[in-house]
Amino acid sequence: MASVLKSEELESYRQVLQNLKARLRGDLNQMTDEALRRHQPDSSGNLSNVPLHMADVGTENYDQEFTLGLIENEQGTLDQVYEALGRIDSGTFGRCEECGEAIAKPRLQALPYTAHCIQCARELESRG
Length: 128
Description:
Layout: H1 7-36, H2 54-90, H3 105-110, H4 118-127
Helix pairs in contact: 1-2
């Protein structure tokens, strides 16, 4: 199955994906550091011996869980970026993995890591 994109277009998408990969990896490293509080003297971030109020502990736990959720989402996107780079290497980038049709260029420009055309993506989303 030949690629539907010209080689210069593929290289342009490869560069966009490489840049996105670098940004996501940096974001993930920063959020992981924040979530795990690697740079804090202790895990709670409390610099004094004064006991923490329970509301403060709850807020800190919420913030950590929220950050862990963001990490999970970013990691999923990063995985899709790696898969898209693999599709460029294998010559299948720009084709829907579900139906095999070409993915519209505006969709690829908006989501360069997408593996599905808009119609198949909608159907997959509706199935859950």
